[in-house]
Amino acid sequence: MHPSLPLTSLLQALDPDSERAAHLYRSLQKRIARFFQINNASDPESLADEVIDRLAERLGSTQPGDIGSPQAFALGIARNVLREDQRKQRREERTATEWAAFTLANKGHDEELLHDLDQCMAQMRDDQRLLLRTYYQWSGREKIEHHRRISEQLGLTLNALRNRLMRARTELDKCIQRRRSDVLGSDSTKGQEVRQAGNRSPNRSR
Questions:
Q1: What is the pLDDT of residues 57-92, one digit of tens each?
Q2: Considering only CA atoms, which of 76, 137, 127 is closest in space to residue 103?
């Protein structure tokens, strides 16, 4: 199988000699992965592949020499990808914090809400339920390794795993909101009926 056109452009930009270009390509990929590893990125290998893909696409759409050193340009792309990954990690941390705060704040204080949570979880598919229960159990490097194991078990990339998690969270949140709305609506109706009954009661004799 011949390399794709963008990859061919990248190899040619690295070195006209195919063997040296292949060596430089592998070296560049390792350096980028190392850059992500040092900066605690979520998935250094996959992010390095993303950088290489973006670099190859850019080289394939520009004239030779327009971007200068491919290695230096790749580092600039890597910095952008790292910022994107850090934003994703912060969103995940906020989600995990919200989830933990929700369960801790309501434990023993709002049995109805916890009951709604259990009922909604029971309605979800087994894989969604398992994903939600296991995804937030770890932090730091352990979290990254744990998430990688989950993605491998499910045959997904980390990005696909995050997307599946977000869909499951959205579905769970909607279910809880529906159940809470039903409960609040029922309570409101009962309260209104009580008030109306009170208004209809005979006046006390003077």
A1: 888 777 656 677 889 999 999 999 999 988 887 776
A2: 137
pTM higher than 0.70? no
> How many residues belong to the chain?
206
Q: Kindly report each contact of residues 139-145 with a partner whose C-beta sits within 8 Å and lies 24 or more positions away, as own/partner.
A: 139/96, 141/40, 144/42, 144/43
Closest CA to 29 of 47, 41, 16: 47
pLDDT digit string (tens) for 127-151? Answer: 788 777 776 665 556 667 777 788 8
Are residues 92 and 138 in contact, defined by beta-carbon separation less than 8 angstroms?
Answer: no
Q: How many CB atoms lie within 10 A of CB 3?
A: 15
